[in-house]
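Researcher: Sequence recovery benchmark, item below. Answer with residues only.
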């Protein structure tokens, strides 16, 4: 479940990958998921905390929440279209 209480359909493990790789991985995977699905991106690059929400705004996707999962930074994104 995401912090907002919604089910996460998939987790994308980008731990250890540096900017811009987590955003690129998200951009490649998100279109393969159904509209409304929430994907969780695990990313420990500090830039991800800025890059992922910014990418969502630019692409019209919904940034749901940032949290910590098992000690790793996690970013939940909902596909809107």
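Model:
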């Amino acid at each position: 479940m995401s912090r907002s209480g919604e089910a996460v359909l998939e987790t994308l493990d980008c731990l250890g990958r540096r900017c811009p790789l987590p955003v690129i991985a998200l951009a490649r995977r998100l279109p393969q998921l159904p509209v409304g699905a929430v994907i969780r991106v695990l990313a420990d690059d500090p830039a991800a905390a800025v890059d992922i929400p910014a990418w969502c705004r630019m692409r019209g996707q919904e940034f749901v929440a940032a949290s910590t999962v098992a000690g790793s930074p996690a970013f939940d994104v909902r596909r809107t279209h």
